[in-house]
Amino acid sequence: MDCTSSTCASFGTPVELPISESHPQSPVSPYGRTKLAFEGALRDYEMAYPIRHINLRYFNAAGAHESGELGEDHRPEAHIIPLTIDAALGRGPGLKIYGNDYDTPDGTCIRDYVHVSDLASVHLSALERLRQGSASESFNLGTGEGHSVLEVIASVERVGGRKVPYEIVARRAGDPARLVASSAKARRELGYQPRFVTLDRIVETAWRFKERFPDGFPD
Which tens digits make up the pLDDT trace of 162-204? Predict the structure, then answer.
């Protein structure tokens, strides 16, 4: 049995919100296409071998362990919350906002941010479900609440007490305006109950990790 990390990017530009597991999968980015290809490979593999699997489709994974001991250490960093915190702390250039003319209330992209600890917990529930004999299936994982890029900036400023320098630049290809999850199936069948349900709580944990490891983990 296998529990895999898939992605909301496999859905592409949504035709309805929130996005449920039955939403068409039409990815618009290489990342989404490769994740969808792997979902297909798992289905094909199961036809040849008796190995069941669960695809957990993360929306925007974010945050860090509450202790500040574990967190994101990407080099280079590409995720918006740590990039926004770095900008607030004066590390590197200001934050770039890729487009402010989307069909959203403030013109910037909206995403559903889900805490890494909640994802870890639901992985254990999914593995237990497989252990008990469940068929292969997929689950969407988010909070059901979307936050714009400007709302992320405002959250970091509240949590850290510092202004975030930023600039508006051109849109990137393959960025849908809104991605928000329906996690009703995961709540019903996996007992999924996120503990980190506000953006500020998620940002607080990420800020704590950045304070403890400003340059990432020691080499």
Answer: 999 999 999 998 899 999 999 999 999 999 999 999 999 999 9
The token pair at 117 is: 């600890």
- Classify 68 as helix, strand or coil: coil
Q: How far is it, in rounded angstroms, from Cα 2 to Cα 127?
A: 7
Q: Cα separations (Å) of 197 from 62, 63, 186, 203? A: 12, 12, 15, 11
**207 three-class SS:** helix
- Measured CA to CA, the distance from residue 119 to residue 55 in angstroms comes to 12
Quote the CA–CA distance of 208 and 203 in Å, as a whole number.
9
Segments of the chain assigned E as strands: 2-7, 53-58, 60-62, 95-98, 110-111, 113-115, 137-141, 147-148, 166-169, 178-179
199 contacts 151 by C-beta, under 8 angstroms: yes
Residue of 31, 49, 58, 98 marked active site: 31
- State both tokens at 74: 């990407």
- 192 is a catalytic site residue: no
Task: Enumerate domains of the chain plus CATH numbers.
Answer: 2-212 (3.40.50.720)
